[in-house]
Design a protein that fits this description.
It contains 13 helices and no strands. By secondary structure, the chain is an all-alpha fold. Helix 3 packs across helix 10 (143-152). The longest helix has 15 residues, at 99-113.
Length: 212
Amino acid sequence: MAQKQLHSAVSEDALNALKLADQDLARLIDQVPSRPFVEIASYESTFHALGRSIVYQQLAGKAAATIYGRVKSCLGGRLDAERLLATAPSELRAAGLSNNKMLALQDLATWQTQGRLPSRIALDAMDDEQVIAKLVGIRGVGRWTAQMLLMFWLQRPDVWPAGDFGVRKGYALLKRLEPMPDAKSFIPMGNDYRPYRSFAAWYMWRATELLD
């Protein structure tokens, strides 16, 4: 069965439910002029979605975008699995990739060329945990990277990326918590936002921009 997606009628239902669930979040929602996931990332394939996420890991947006652009230029203007595997490691490193990210992209490209990387249609037929379990076998793809794919490409509405520093920081700012919760203790803190935790996480990122 196809999963619900973020840019459907579920969006308004999500905001109304979140406002009722959390008064602090309700005030934040009213302060943010844009609406969550209005611009969903668009990718050609699972390979492109995961490749971008790998490049962006643990980097600020501007720096990550610069490196991502250099990597694409190095590969002729777009991420291409066969071309990536044929490119010298020194060229990939010169584009700004760390050794670990280069090896992760090479493993991802190997999965793609060997036909082991599931298509969008195949992923749509899986639940969230099945998607994560399938993808974490790829080098450099952990739970966080798989969750970003769930949120921004598969557009799942109830993902809670407890390992994301920005989401935890935003929640701590919103709730005036010190110290910031660690990833394990943060997991149940999202329960009040079910079944719209993806939207709540998006607002926690906005909280880091408005409240820090």
